[in-house]
């Protein structure tokens, strides 16, 4: 697997990455570009969780991470939709066991980690929605910056004022079904992206989660947002929020 250079860039060979919330200048780069690459759904969640931590010096570049994700079956296109809607099928299925998922280079590049994560994607028996989860040990974080509060503060500062990306309160269980389950379809049919930090400083671990509609902020919603910026329209035009 090719590793990308460990340097922060916001565009490559004339192409601009279409995640307006990536960094301070990204929105203006998209607005002035003729070549905009729409992010993948899984990378949207992963990059949204990790890039701010790299920029804040909390997560060292080159860190080797693991990411788990579950998506609705619509993410597999017409062929997978047909499987799930017209015949017998598994209730849940992990995949990517060749360890060469097509989104790995994108995750490594735009997180600025440089190192592709070990990626464990899965698809389940619901049409749309997605949760992307990045588990962390505090030993993976920079010295003196390893705490749930520091992680949460970095994400909150990065997305302050964002129209579509929301950082939920630290260790917020109020949005969990029956106090336990983070359902993947809660922001369906919107362009919203919700970020969660669940941390236990006493044992030095954290769970970072991103919830989005794989067909919204993970696909067509992001495309409309980028189109609005490129055409000089209201960034929120034609889009809804949770």
Your description of this structure?
The protein is an alpha/beta fold. The protein has a single domain (41-217), classed as Dihydrodipicolinate Reductase, domain 2. The chain has 6 helices and 10 strands; from the N terminus they run E-E-H-E-H-E-H-E-H-E-E-H-E-E-E-H. The strands form 2 sheets. The protein has a 7-stranded mixed sheet with strand order 5-6-4-7-10-9-8. A 3-stranded mixed sheet has the order 1-2-3, covered by helices on one side. Strand 9 (193-200) and strand 10 (205-212) form a beta hairpin. Helix 1 (26-32) packs across helix 6 and helix 2 runs parallel beside helix 4 (104-111). It is globular, with a radius of gyration of 17 Å. Residues 1-8 have low confidence and may be disordered.
What's the topology here?
Elements (H helix, E strand, L loop, with lengths): L10 E2 L2 E3 L8 H7 L3 E2 L3 H15 L10 E7 L4 H10 L5 E3 L9 H8 L6 E7 L5 E8 L10 H11 L6 E3 L25 E8 L4 E8 L3 H16 L11
Parallel strand pairs: 2-3, 4-6, 8-9
Antiparallel strand pairs: 1-2, 4-7, 5-6, 7-10, 9-10
């Amino acid at each position: 697997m090719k590793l990308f250079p460990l340097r922060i860039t916001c565009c490559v060979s004339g192409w601009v990455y279409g995640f307006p919330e990536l960094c301070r200048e990204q929105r203006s780069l998209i607005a002035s570009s003729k070549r905009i690459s729409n992010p993948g759904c899984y990378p949207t969640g992963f990059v949204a969780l990790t890039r701010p931590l790299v920029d804040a010096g909390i997560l060292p570049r080159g860190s080797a991470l693991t990411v788990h994700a579950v998506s609705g079956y619509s993410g597999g296109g017409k062929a997978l939709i047909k499987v799930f809607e017209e015949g017998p099928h598994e209730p849940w299925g992990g995949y990517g066991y060749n360890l060469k998922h097509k989104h790995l280079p994108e995750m490594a590049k735009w997180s600025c980690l440089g190192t592709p994560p070990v990626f464990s994607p899965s698809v389940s028996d619901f049409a749309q929605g997605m949760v992307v989860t990045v588990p962390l040990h505090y030993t993976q974080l920079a010295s003196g910056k390893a705490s749930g509060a520091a992680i949460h503060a970095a994400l909150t500062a990065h997305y302050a004022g964002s129209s579509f990306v929301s950082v939920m309160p630290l260790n917020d269980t109020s949005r969990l079904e029956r106090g336990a389950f983070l359902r993947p379809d809660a922001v369906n049919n919107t362009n919203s992206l919700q970020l969660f930090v669940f941390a236990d400083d006493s044992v030095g671990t954290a769970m970072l989660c991103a919830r989005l509609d794989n067909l919204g902020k993970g696909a067509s919603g992001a495309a409309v947002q980028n189109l609005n910026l490129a055409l000089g329209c209201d960034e929120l035009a034609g889009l809804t929020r949770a």
